[in-house]
């Protein structure tokens, strides 16, 4: 499995996902600004991975501090976490990771400056490592729901390229392969940024998972022909009532799944559950630039100056979700996330 982020030899290496599947290029990110733009420009993306990168970004911000007045130290950390929080608005993992790093920093008052920095790096590494265990547990919980030989559809990339390893929606696909099961996977290309074609098809194909790439507009006919046993997507934010924000195009998949009686599952690490957001209506939906719709790798795919609407996410109402699978267990409707994840 390809790793999208590595901390090694005292440096942060980020795989530039804008170059996949053609080039596999890792770049060193040395400053909090480097991490901000890597998230904003989608060199790295995917809710859990955004959180992990932001955690390292807070450490890189601390690294530049050369004074040990704790009030000033905290002021700097707070400024830089607010800066990183501006990178993308929807994936709650970003804010979860920033809050966790800020809370950690508050506990370091009596340490030397070097030990403060060391402790923040250790916290970022913990967030990174914990994510791997979370994803494996999500996969294990999914295998209680799925059966060998099933055909699964997925949307966008909620794979190892969106996390530390295994992915969330793809975790059961990798674990099934470990168990000698054979899933057939349909990966939706996921216009406009093609995370499904460029990333999900890439990582599953290179891992020997049976994956077939389809255009987004082909999903309905496969369900109508009874060829899909389950749909599994990731999530960027789950509201307290179970409404779920995920990549644009997820909502229409869920509506069609309901119509054709296909189970619609969401793979959710619990840091993606946001109890402070009551329903999907309150989830901020990122709108991205028109170039993502009108160009691909510099080739125009629409007339110059055309008006474009480019929301990066949509919200699937909880009524359309068969189950929410987390590392702590499987949550069934009615969803009331404040009940200890409802597992
Ligand atoms: C593991 S969930 C990843 C989640 O993030 C993706 O969005 P983006 O590529 O814009 O960061 C997509 O919504 C995935 O489901």
UniProtKB/TrEMBL annotation:
The keyword Isomerase applies. One of its GO terms (biological process) is L-methionine salvage from methylthioadenosine. It holds the Pfam family IF-2B. It catalyses: 5-(methylsulfanyl)-alpha-D-ribose 1-phosphate = 5-(methylsulfanyl)-D-ribulose 1-phosphate. The keyword Isomerase applies. Pathway: Amino-acid biosynthesis; L-methionine biosynthesis via salvage pathway; L-methionine from S-methyl-5-thio-alpha-D-ribose 1-phosphate: step 1/6. Its EC number is 5.3.1.23. Keywords: Amino-acid biosynthesis, Isomerase, Methionine biosynthesis. GO terms for molecular function: S-methyl-5-thioribose-1-phosphate isomerase activity. Catalyzes the interconversion of methylthioribose-1-phosphate (MTR-1-P) into methylthioribulose-1-phosphate (MTRu-1-P). This is Methylthioribose-1-phosphate isomerase. It comes from Alkaliphilus pronyensis.
């Amino acid at each position: 499995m390809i790793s999208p982020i590595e901390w090694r030899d005292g440096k942060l290496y980020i795989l530039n996902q804008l170059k996949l599947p053609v080039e596999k290029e890792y770049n060193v990110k040395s400053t909090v600004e480097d991490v901000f733009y890597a998230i904003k420009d989608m060199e790295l993306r995917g809710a859990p991975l955004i959180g992990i990168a932001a955690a390292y970004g807070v450490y890189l911000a601390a690294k530049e501090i050369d004074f040990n007045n704790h009030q000033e130290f905290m002021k700097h950390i707070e400024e830089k976490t607010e800066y990183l929080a501006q990178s993308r608005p929807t994936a709650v993992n970003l804010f979860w990771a920033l809050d966790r790093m800020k809370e950690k920093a508050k506990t370091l008052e009596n340490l030397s400056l070097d030990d403060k920095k060391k402790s923040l790096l250790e916290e970022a590494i913990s967030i990174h490592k914990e994510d791997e265990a979370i994803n494996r547990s999500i996969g294990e919980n999914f295998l209680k729901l799925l059966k060998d030989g099933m055909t699964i559809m997925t949307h966008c990339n909620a794979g190892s390229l969106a996390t530390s390893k295994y992915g969330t929606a793809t975790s059961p696909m990798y674990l099934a392969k470990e168990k000698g099961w054979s899933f057939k996977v349909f990966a939706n290309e996921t216009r406009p940024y093609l995370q499904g074609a460029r990333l999900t098809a890439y990582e599953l194909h290179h891992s020997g998972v049976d994956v077939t790439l389809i255009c987004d507009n082909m999903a309905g006919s496969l369900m109508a022909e009874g060829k899909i046993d389950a749909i599994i997507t990731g999530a960027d934010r789950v509201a307290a009532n179970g409404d779920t924000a995920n990549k644009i195009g997820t909502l229409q998949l869920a509506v069609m799944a309901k119509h054709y009686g296909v189970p619609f599952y969401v793979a959710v690490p619990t840091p993606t559950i946001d109890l402070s957001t009551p329903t999907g209506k309150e989830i901020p939906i990122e709108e991205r630039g028109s170039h993502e719709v009108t160009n691909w790798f510099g080739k125009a795919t629409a007339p110059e100056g055309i008006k474009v609407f480019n929301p990066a996410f949509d919200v699937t109402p909880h009524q359309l979700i068969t189950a929410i699978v987390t590392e702590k267990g499987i949550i069934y409707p009615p969803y009331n996330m404040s009940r200890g994840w409802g597992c």
